[in-house]
Specification:
Elements (H helix, E strand, L loop, with lengths): L23 H4 L17 E10 L2 E12 L5 E5 L4 E4 L4 E10 L5 H12 L4 E4 L3 E5 L3 H24 L11 E6 L2 H12 L1 H4 L3 E3 L5 E5 L3 H4 L6 H9 L2 H18 L11 H11 L18 H13 L5 H7 L2 H4 L4 H18 L1 H12 L9 H12 L3 H14 L2
Parallel strand pairs: 7-8, 8-10
Antiparallel strand pairs: 1-2, 1-5, 2-3, 3-4, 6-7, 9-10
This protein binds zinc ion (ZN).
Length: 400
């Protein structure tokens, strides 16, 4: 088992964020599933693991075992929500404690984050979030308000459509740097080169969002008035959409909608984030833009459809995630994923919810074959892919 992140070679002329491509896709950890039992035992016991994290460095992790591989490897979740895939040669020691596993409190998590990030970082906690930032309270509080509003809007949207979601087991973490340079330096270490040029990312491994102050340049040394602050943010709609996109991933992976390290088709997870990424910065009481047409994605989809969309496009989108990690194909794959998700959520909501439930129940570290993915899709939506495609293309043509 490997603990490292898989990255395609980063030689794209345009940074991924500029094309609306989420770096989450390249942060996915790919693991061989062969060593895991089909029905693994789940332990609630708190254990102490001594793990070799680098050649000459070991770390102690308190957590519980999610999966016990036949080859002696483990998938462990820490008290902060971080996932650790521990190969048999990386496990130095394992000791069962007398306690049951419990997640860290928001306060303890805040202390851990400050310890990790150092002086100058302060903690702002909201109902569901722990925000650790050196960008100042104004920005942290704005993030907290934005996240909480999205959190409520997301849950309400799916509750109304009959999907039961649970509350996050762990406080949701956001690390917010004061500027782009600090963010890039951290992202390089934390997530690799693809993340450094983004406006923020959600790490499925660490369960944390990482981002930076989007109005830092305007702020300079002086504090901005509330009005100035709002005005500056108003000029950053595209970048705020990225933050909302990443925050949607985090909520979806922490509320039982998606399972971390399970087979989540990227068209589905990215389509979900894009469905919510249209920010609503004006309303104080709700999020009125959930599910409005995402103009940027629709424009890209129409361009793709008229100029270069192959006949088997929908099938390839569902079969595998390959198009999302290919730099030349990713932008179109995202647009198509938005379009398909939009169509299914709006036109087939009950079946879409059933599909979400099927995916959420999938085991960790087991990957479906392309044939299984298509078969499941066709079974839930009750039609062949080419029949769905005909309905969808017709609906997309009518969209304004
Ligand atoms: Zn994404």
């Amino acid at each position: 088992m490997s603990q490292r992140t898989a990255h395609p070679s980063p030689s794209t002329p345009l940074p991924k964020w500029a094309m609306g491509v989420c770096v989450c896709t390249v942060l996915l950890w790919l693991a061989a599933s062969a060593g895991f039992a089909a029905d693994p035992p789940v332990s609630q016991r708190l254990e102490e693991f001594r793990i070799k994290v680098e050649k000459d460095r070991e770390q102690t992790v308190l957590g519980r075992v999610l999966l016990d591989a036949q080859d002696g490897g483990l998938l462990v979740i820490g008290r902060d929500g971080k996932l650790w895939s521990v190969g048999v040669d990386e496990l130095v020691r394992r000791k069962v404690t007398d306690e049951d596993f419990s997640p860290l409190s928001a306060k303890a998590l805040g202390e851990q984050l400050r310890g990790e990030l150092g002086a100058g970082f302060e903690i702002v906690t909201t109902k569901h979030y722990v925000i650790c930032s050196n960008a100042g309270r104004q920005y942290s509080q704005w993030c907290g308000t934005l996240f909480e509003r999205l959190f409520d809007a997301f849950r309400n949207y799916w509750k109304q459509r009959g999907l039961a979601l649970h509350y996050p087991e762990f406080p949701l973490i956001a690390i917010v740097f004061a500027n782009e340079q600090q963010f890039a330096a951290f992202a390089q270490r934390d997530a690799g080169p693809d993340a450094t040029s983004s406006k923020g990312y959600f790490s499925i491994t660490s369960n944390r969002m990482v981002m930076y102050d989007l109005v830092a340049e305007a702020r300079g040394a002086a504090a901005l008035s509330a009005t100035e602050f709002q005005q500056r943010l108003g000029t950053q709609a595209f970048n705020v959409a990225t933050v909302v996109h990443e925050a949607t991933h985090q909520i979806a992976f922490n509320s039982g909608m998606h399972t971390r390290y399970a087979d989540n088709p990227l068209w589905l997870t990215e389509g979900m984030a894009m469905f919510f990424e249209t920010p609503d910065l004006n309303s104080k009481t709700g999020w009125r833009t959930v599910g409005i047409v995402n103009d940027l994605r629709l424009k890209q989809f129409r361009d793709f459809s008229t100029k270069r969309r192959p006949a088997d496009s929908l099938a390839t989108l569902i079969q595998s995630d390959a198009r999302f990690t290919d730099e030349k194909l990713a932008v179109d794959a995202y647009a198509e994923a938005w379009s398909l998700s939009y169509f299914l959520i709006k036109n087939r909501p009950a079946d879409y919810v059933r599909y979400l439930e099927r995916l959420a129940a999938k085991p960790r570290l087991m990957w479906d074959t392309p044939e299984q993915r298509v078969a499941e899709f066709e079974e839930v939506f009750g039609k062949k892919v080419n029949e769905i495609e005909a309905d969808w293309v017709k609906a997309m043509r009518r969209l304004k």
